[in-house]
Amino acid sequence: MTLAIRFYQTGGPEVLQTETVEVGAPGPGEVRLRHRAIGVNFIDTYVRSGLYPASLPSGLGTEAAGVVEAVGAGVEQVRVGDRVAYCGGPIGAYSGERLIPAAVLVKLPDEIGDEQAACMMLQGMTVEYLIRRTYPVQPGQTVLWHAAAGGVGQIAVQWLSSLGVNVIGTVGSDAKAQLARELGCAHVINYSTENVVERVREITAGQGVPVVYDSVGKDTFEISLNCLAPRGMFVSFGNASGAVPPFAPLILAQKGSLYFTRPKLGDYTASRAELEESANALFERVRAGAVRIAPSHRYALADAAQAHRDLEGRRTTGSLVLLP
Predict the structure, then answer these.
(1) Collapsed DSSP state (helix, strand, coil) of residue 130
(2) What are the E-state strand segments in the chain?
(3) What fold is seen in the domain 123-265?
(4) Percent of all residues in the chain with a pLDDT value above 90, rounded to a whole number
(5) What's the rounded Cα separation, in Å, for the pair 148 and 168?
(6) 24, burial (CB in 10 Å: exposed 0-12, middle 13-18, buried 19+)
C-alpha cells in the first residue's frame, strides 16, 4: 500500500484527496517505481481544474524521480535498482509508488540528485525543445521570455544566456526582477510598474524581438504580439492566467506577417530517440554548470493541495517538489 493523491471532481485545490492505494505488480512493459521526489507543475493545476480533461476519478502529476523496484515482462530500458526520472506517460506521479511504462523513463546520471531531477525534467526539457527546435535561437539574438523568474523561466534564462543570447525577462515584483538579473537576464521588465511593449521597443531600438516565449496566456497575448518584429514567432506554451482567447488569423498579418505556434513537450519527445536526446541535452547543460536547478519549495505529498494554492497564488518562485 502507498499514499496517493486523487480527485473525483474538477475544481480548486480542495478537490485533492489523500488516499492509500494498492500498487500491484508491473505488467508487460511496465515497472513499479518508488518515488523519491515528485515535481509540481502548472499543467497539474490545469488537469485538476478541468482545463485539460481527465477521466475521473484520477490521479495527478506527470513528473517524478525514483528507484525501480520491479520490472514487468519485456522491459529492457531499465533494471531493478536504477535511478530514473520521467515527465510524461499516464498521470499519477502524486504517489509514493506507482506502475508506469518503462518507455517513458530516463536513467539519471550520478551527478543529478532526486529532488533536482524531479523539478528539472518537464521544465528543462520544455526549455530544450522551445529554444533548440520550436525556434532555434542563435547567439546574439534578443528574445522576450515572460515569467522569467518562474520554474521554466529560470532554466531558460540561464540556458539562453550561456549561449550568448540577450534575454528580456518579464516579472511581477522587484524581488523577482533581482532574481532574473542574477540568472542572466540582460533586461528585466516589471509588468506591475512598467509598460512591457514600450520597454521592449525601447530596448530593441523600435524593432521588436524575433521570438516571444509566453507561458502566461490570456493576460499577455496582445502584449506578446505587439513586442514582435515583422515575421517574428509567438510561442505560446502555457495558460497561467487562463487560455488565450480565440482570435482571427488576420491579426497576424496586420502585425507583420507573424507566426503563432502552440507546442507541447509530448510532440517533441514522441520517439525514444527524441526523448533521450532531449534529456541528454538538458543533463549536459546541468553537468557543465551552465544551468543550476534546485527546488525552491518542498512540501510533503499529503500537502499537495497547499502546493497548488501557493503555485496558483503566485507565492512561489522557481520549482516545487512533493516528498513522499
Answers:
(1) helix
(2) 2-6, 17-21, 30-40, 64-71, 83-86, 97-101, 106-107, 142-145, 166-171, 187-190, 209-214, 228-236, 259-261, 295-300, 319-323
(3) Rossmann fold (3.40.50)
(4) 87
(5) 8
(6) exposed
Q: What are phi and psi of 263, to 5 degrees?
A: -85, 165
CA atoms within 13 A on the CB side of 138: 4
Please give the average per-residue pLDDT across 21-42, as a whole number. 95
Domain residue ranges of the chain, discontinuous segments joined by + = 2-119+294-323, 123-265
The pLDDT tens digits of the residues spanning 50-77 come to 988 999 999 999 999 999 999 999 999 8
Calculate the alpha carbon distances from 35 to 66, 297, 324 in Å: 4, 18, 7
The H or E element containing residue 289 is none
Task: List the end-to-end C-alpha distance of the chain, in Å, as a whole number.
Answer: 13
Question: Who's near 121: CB < 8 A, 6+ residues apart?
Answer: 39, 63, 65, 85, 86, 87, 106, 279, 282
Cell numbers describing residue 217: 496566456
**Cell numbers at residue 51, please?**
482545463
Could you tell me whether strands 30-40 and 97-101 are parallel, antiparallel, or unpaired per DSSP bridges? antiparallel
- The answer to whether the beta carbons of residues 86 and 104 sit under 8 Å apart is yes
Q: Could you say which DSSP state residue 82 is in? A: -
**What are the phi and psi torsion angles at 137 (to 5°)?**
-75, 140
pLDDT tens digits, 152-211:
999 999 999 999 999 999 999 999 999 999 999 999 999 999 999 999 999 999 999 999
> For the domain 2-119+294-323, what is the CATH code?
3.90.180.10
